[in-house]
Amino acid sequence: MEGFKDKLRQNTYLRWILLFSNWLIQGILHADKTEKIYKLLFTIISWCGFFILFQNTFNYSIIWSIFFGFLLGHTLNWIVNGNFYNLLVHRLYLSKLTKKDLFLYLHNLSNRLNGKSFILYCASFGSICNGNLKDSSDLDVSLVRKPGFKNGLKSIIILVQERKLADLKGIPLEMFLSDSPNNSKKRFGNEQNPVVIYDPDNIITNYYSEKLSLIQAKSLNGMID
Fold this sequence. Notes:
Number of helices: 9
Number of strands: 4
Helix content: 40-55%
């Protein structure tokens, strides 16, 4: 599948299919349970709100109210809970960033997560782990939460905040909320040396034989201070 996506990215016109598929799917199919429920509820509630608006304010028929309500509700979910710079940089190749920008974001993310007791650990995967980070790479980040309803809500807030902050700073962020370390490991099954962003209780060593600090990752990717 990734090979097919890469071919689309290389085509000036066909790459826009990735924009549509991103809007349509919005990562819901591959999301962990907490994030999946949140996104579905967000879309359904927004859909109902727009349906009422079209029915009561614009006097649209039920069919058109349902259609436009879903269209706007789904789009609102995409805007609020997505990361546009991931599309611009990593999917559509319309913008580029330096490695310095990406590492600065991860360093600041580590500081922002400090003291967040509802987060078990946070780590980055993908090209950053094997020294292949480049100006069109995105940051694959797993945010692993602790069990419990309140911890889930707090983690969702952090997830949305980070995606919007990344947009403001022009960072292509692919952040996933994982309900458990095992779920996170399953998502990144081929990765064996995550870059540790936040791990106050040294949990990551229970799941991976190797790990990288941000300093080690910078060196691996050719950024030696």
